[in-house]
Amino acid sequence: MKRNITVFIVAFLTAVFLGCGQSEPEAVPEGGIIATDDAGRTVVLSATPERVVSTAPDATETIYAIAPEALVGRSAYCNRPSGVVDLPVIGDFSNPDAERIAALRPDLVIVTGMEQAPLLAKLDSLGIQVYVYFPGSLEELGRDFLELGRLLGNPEEGGRLADELERTAAEVGSKAGEGDRPQVYIEICGEPPMTACSGSLIHDLVTTAGGVNVFNDLPRTYHNVPPEKLLVADPDVVLLCDGLTTPEMAARRTGWKNLNAVVLGRVHTLDPDLVLRAGPRTVRALRMISSLLHPNGK
Length: 298
Description:
The chain is of the alpha/beta class and about 300 residues long. It has 2 domains: about 1-135, Rossmann fold (3-Layer(aba) Sandwich), CATH 3.40.50.1980; about 180-295, Rossmann fold (3-Layer(aba) Sandwich). It is about 35% helix and about 15% strand. The protein is built from 12 helices and 12 strands. The strands form 3 sheets. Strands 7, 8, 9, 10, 11 and 12 form a 6-stranded mixed β-sheet that branches. A 4-stranded parallel β-sheet has the order 4-3-5-6, sandwiched between helices. It has a two-stranded antiparallel ribbon with strand order 1-2. Strand 1 (about 35) and strand 2 form a beta hairpin.
């Protein structure tokens, strides 16, 4: 299942949503709440939502941290925290069912990613309010914490999450500035090899932690990598994020035995649920990546 999750996460940061569901700004009702989502859409609610449905694992973790009592539905891949597993399932990530969602009578639905663009249009047609959640950086994630804190009626917790994230990023960034900046290859899928580039959250985690993404300049947020191009890049550190590939498996690939990262024993397997989900646990992901890039604290 982790392989499917990893592939689906690749779609998170596409721009399909930017023009989807946009309309003239709504007037804010008295006592209402207004927010801007990650697609730049204005979300207007007449009151704090009491029933919220999430269609993606990272959104589910964030909602649960801010307003767990409001969450009434989830996708099949939402498995954390343990308190969400008994909630009604509205489909998987790529095929959420609008009818199942509507049957839960939500006041707000949190969606994400390219594959869910049709769902956004369908929910709009049903008059269901939607917030698009796909932060591609630590700064955007902090903004989402604040926006969802206000929307969900718990600005204190949203603010606490944002503050914790900002403090951790500043602390990690400060330490990283004092040491070397290793060249890093981020692999989110092994067959065929695919990497995360600028515009992805994990790219921002690596750069904040003091690494240099060897494929930062590729034209898309997530990009296939020809094996020979990786051999030329010769990274100092490899982060395997598909949940399937082990360092031993990777080392058996053609040409990999001579990679600097393999020679130095710096090929690491990361939990995709931790490092690819943008949510409250991202601070843990950032600290972990920092420790891998700077094992001696430098």
